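Reopening this one. Same input as before:
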Amino acid sequence: MHTPREHGSHTANPHCLIPSCTQIHFLILMSRQGKVRLAKWYSTYSQKERAKTIKETTGLILSRPLRLCNFLDWRGMKLVYKRYASLYFVCGVDAGDNELITLEIIHEFVEVGEVAAP
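Same output, byte for byte:
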């Protein structure tokens, strides 16, 4: 049996297919108008913290010019986001995690959604 590798501030999953596993704290899908379509939480947040997180991330991302990079430092973690059509996919990950792997995870999520919804 494999033993877990230490990676940054968390233990990487030995069964993960990605070489350097990314710790996703939350995934938020929002429209260009700021309406949240889906919010999935992978770390513990109270309802108040969730509302504050959504409000802050929505304001930060929607106010950024389109030509800026899709990575942003926020509250000791990174926000990695990508716009597909009229939706923004936003992931909150650990500060030391690889942004490009997170963008790849978002892309896979979008592809799976396209297959599931004909």
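So the earlier flakiness isn't reproducible anymore. For the record, DSSP finds two helices and seven strands in the chain.
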